[in-house]
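Subject: sequence -> structure tokens, single chain

Hey, anyone have a minute? Need the predicted structure for the following. Not urgent.
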Amino acid sequence: MNKLNSLCNWFSDKKSVIVAVSGGVDSALVAYAAYAQLGNSAIAVTADYKTLSNDELDSSKKICKEIGINQIIINYSELENEDFVRNDKNRCFYCRTELSHYLINIAKENQIETIVDGTNLDDLGDYRPGLIALQKNNILHPLVECNFTKNEVRYISKDIGLSIHDRPSNSCLASRVPWGQRVTAEKLTRIEMGETFVKQIVGAKQVRVRDLDGSAKIEVDVDELYLLNDPSKINEIKMKLKLLGFSSVQIDPDGYSPGKLNVIVD
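Reply:
Had a minute. Here:
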């Protein structure tokens, strides 16, 4: 538990802190450590910015209640930000810039000196312009500073009894839309509902429904590809996704991997 102690100790010289809690295991562990060290001087803030799935929002509420940390939910729509909906390669930068401004305002209103998130060491290896925006706005990454990998986050979260220790990694629904194709409320709705259907029908935990200009491409974790071997279930999925408005449906035989859509589509 030396790693957990180091994370808790990271907060020892902080008077108060906001933890940006997304609903995933990384920010949950940070919230746990912050609350363990600072008690009610640590608060969680979750942004319901209309590209966060309801499942993630519900997860954030559950884990904050489990930890005991006070949670503030802020509501705004990224779909009102033209820079974001244009969906170029800097979409995540615009997203995290807007989020940072909300977090900073809450910090000022509550006289809180420090804002942190759940970025871990593994996150630094991918193309993540959102991290640049967070760093520009002085959002700190305790897991990075304490040298936590994703596997270590999961291991320690399980050890201390966090219920979401094995929750699959997720990202905002807009990440299912290729760069260069506009993000719309209609697309986000059918993506979210499509992923829910896939999970319900085959029982997969890690699911992405990519919206490729109106065509659905389904990805599940490589270890769960066998769940897509039942033709009757695949037919049911295709029928339901077409009812949602997708023009066609295909299964990615290679399975899920992060960053697959980091390509500009003309």
